[in-house]
Amino acid sequence: AAFVSLVAKGNAEVREAGIDALNDAANRKEGGIDASAIDVPTVALWLSPKEPEIQSKAFRLLGAIGTDAAAKVLAAKFPKASEGDRGWIRDSLGPKRPRPAALPFLAIAADQDQTSEIRLAALGVLNRLARSEAAEGLVALLADPSMAIRRDAHQALVGSSGRDDLAFEPSAAPTEREEAIGKWKKWLAVRKRTLDLDAEDAKKADAAAARLSSTAAEASTADETNSLELAWAVRELPSARGRKRAEDVLARHLEKPAESVN
Fold first, then answer.
1. DSSP for residue 102
2. Is the terminal CB of the chain with fewer CB neighbours within 10 Å at N or C?
3. Residue 126: how many CB atoms within 10 A of its CB?
4. Between vectors from CA 57 to CA 52 and to CA 58, what angle results, nearest 5°?
5. From residue 86, how far is each of 75, 76, 231, 248 by CA, in Å?
6. Which residues of the chain have pLDDT under 70?
């Protein structure tokens, strides 16, 4: 914090050198710093088009910080940023864990008052972020009037879901697209229940586990969608508690076919 404050008080040369040092330390795989502790409002002050080099480096630093607050600042600047800076924002946000908020970029992608270029760029960010929070909005964008938006929304959905088996042809006839959207909506319902396994409210998490388990019990064989979602949850849910719940439900889920054979 003291270093950031010192950099902020310096001239342009000092600020640029300071941001370079912070970017280097924040992106270092070993022996770096906890970038999430860097003060976002201070870095946001360096986002001035009057100093394009410093602004570009500040975009990179905010991406390295990777918090929800940093993502919101980046999303607010995104539509008017240069193409190069939009690329920095996309690439710097993607690898961060915990991943930053996707919803500000979803709002840009869904805004038909934005240019097609900006909307597609926002979908590129969502594809990199691969956040389930954006899934419902991305499914809605499969019905967008623009074929390019439909195409990139589907790519982002595949990235966030891992379900490349759920086909969608953006240039297909409306009836065919509606049928594919229906399958994505069914997947979305299962994903929402799967995410509830990670809820802090134990009753909500237990209800989700019971619903996912009963789906398997009602089927003659283990349902593939549930199995794939639970396998995803074992890998990707944020908390160890949620991953353990998913593992337990998946174990019960996969036992059923063997039991039905005996």
1. -
2. C
3. 30
4. 95
5. 10, 12, 33, 42
6. 1, 95-98, 215-223, 255-262
